[in-house]
Amino acid sequence: MADMAESKTNIQEYSVSEISGAVKRTVEDAFGHVRIRGEISGFRGVHSSGHCYFSLKDDRARIEAVIWRSTVQRLRFPPEEGMEVVATGRVTTYPGQSKYQIVIERLEPAGVGALMALLEERRRKLAAEGLFGEERKRALPYLPRTIGVVTSPTGAVIRDILHRLDDRFPSHVVVWPVRVQGETCADEVAAAIRGFNAGVDGVPRPDVLIVARGGGSLEDLWGFNEEAVVRAVAESAVPVISAVGHETDITLVDHAADRRAPTPTAAAEMAVPVRAELITRVDGLDGRLFAATTKSIAQLARDLAGLARLLPRPEDLYSNQRRTLDDLCGRLDRGLVTDAAARRTRFDGIAARYTAVSPDRLLQRRGEDLAALSARADRAIAVNMRRLGDGAARATAGLSPSRLRETIARSGKVLADVSRRLDAALPAALGRQHERLAAAGNLLEAYSYRSVLERGFALVTDDNQKPVRSRKEAPPGRALNVRFHDGDVSVVSGGPARGARKRRELPPESQDTLF
Questions:
Q1: Does residue 137 lie within any of the structural domains?
Q2: Phi and psi dihedrals of 247, rounded to 5?
Q3: 240-244 and 259-260 as β-strands: parallel, antiparallel, unpaired?
Q4: Which end of the chain is more exposed for a tag (fewer CB within 10 A), N or C?
Q5: CA–CA gap between residue 472 and residue 480 (Å, rounded)
Q6: Please, are residues 164 and 207 in contact by the beta-carbon 8 Å criterion?
Q7: What would the 3-class secondary structure string for 34-56 be?
Q8: Same domain, yes or no, for 54 and 155?
Q9: What is the pLDDT of residues 396-416, one digit of tens each?
């Protein structure tokens, strides 16, 4: 037991940190720069710190891998789960967990075949979602006012596009600068497409979008095969022209875009027509329109002339109506004369019936009756007063003063009663007489000639206010007075007007009824 304890004390003791550091130095000295081929496993995307952590494996072993943030930004394509790659870097250890790992400084796909396989798998996946369907592709605007370009601001691509647009049809171009290669390419391109659609930061919404980049290898163009870019193009409300790479370069953005251009210059040609050709075409259309309009007007003029020959003369159109009007005017004249005669006869009959009860006579009789009644009342009052005086005198003869006063008092009461009854009866009698007088006045007004004047007739009198009943009583030059319902007018009779139609002679009885 003592020998065993002594042998243990002869072994050098190390701390955990010393052993870990020694292992780290040994591994880094032996594998300072290596290239490892393997399949990416356990990749969950870029960490919030900007670093990437995953594993590289083959069919028998696994090694942890890390890519620092500064290296991630320089990668030509991002790592993906299941991708076979060749990683260049240095092997080191992580003492905190007693693990070894490779710090990757460069990452490449393990041959073009691997990238093509990944590209084909992604294409099938997006095609199954309908992002590449022809039914969702839209037509480009014929003459866009604003063109949006998503590309690098420093490359030759933007110069080629601007130069071609100036040659064909100068337009307003808005450039959204992005990186067209590297780790951040896909995110910047997708953000630019969505920014153009949303019109953020005061950027006007274009009528058409051009996503452009020059040619390059598959790895250089890989950013335009990312799902984020493809989905942004498919979701764009603005038509998109894809002009990525040369004619032989095909990316997934080409399938999702509404149109694919083989080159950026061809994209500019698709976006706008040739201005000179448009001017020539418009001039040609203007000439054709003028010729067609002239020909149409001439044909319409011929048609109008032909139709005009079929129309009757204007005087023939209203000749029958004019004759009918003359007939109606003649009938109207005769009807007015006949109607006036009938009304005159009716008026004479009514006047004859009411002559006996003329308002003037009624007023005169009512006045006489009223005067007689008033005289009778005065006489009756005087008689009664005399009778009362005589009776009082007889009654008071031989009476004592006291009885005389009583008798006078009774007589005064009787006299007051009679006077009161007389005062009450007289207004009633006068009221009845006034009512009868008012009724007679209304009847007089109803049959007065003034109501006839208000219906449009006129009363013609001479200087002596005598009615003029015929034309013979109004020789030329005689002063006449014409009374209307609202006043009189003094006129002088004359002969018929020059050029006037000869007045038809009326029968004497009709002439009398006019006045």
A1: no
A2: -65, -30
A3: parallel
A4: N
A5: 13
A6: no
A7: EEEEEEEECCCCCCCCCCEEEEE
A8: no
A9: 565 566 766 777 777 778 777
CA distance to 108, 114, 118, 187, 330, per residue, from 84 (Å) = 9, 7, 10, 23, 118
Question: Tokens 């009709």, residue?
Answer: 510
What's 287-347 look like in SS3? HHHHHHHHHHHHHHHHHHHHHHHHCCCHHHHCHHHHHHHHHHHHHHHHHHHHHHHHHHHHH
pLDDT band at 177 (very low <50, low <70, confident <90, very high): very high
Q: Give the bridge partners for 213, in sequence order.
A: 244
Predicted TM-score (pTM) of the model is 0.43
Residue type, 454: E
Q: How far apart are CA 256 and CA 133, in angstroms?
A: 8
Interatomic CA distance for residues 305 and 328, integer angstroms: 37
Q: Note down the domain range covering 303.
A: 275-309
Answer yes or no: do 457 and 439 share one domain: no
Do residues 353 and 406 share a domain?
Answer: yes
Q: Which helix (H) or strand (E) holds 240?
A: strand 240-244
| Domains held by the chain: number | 5
Is pLDDT of 318 > 80?
Answer: no
62-79 pLDDT, tens per residue? 899 999 888 888 877 778
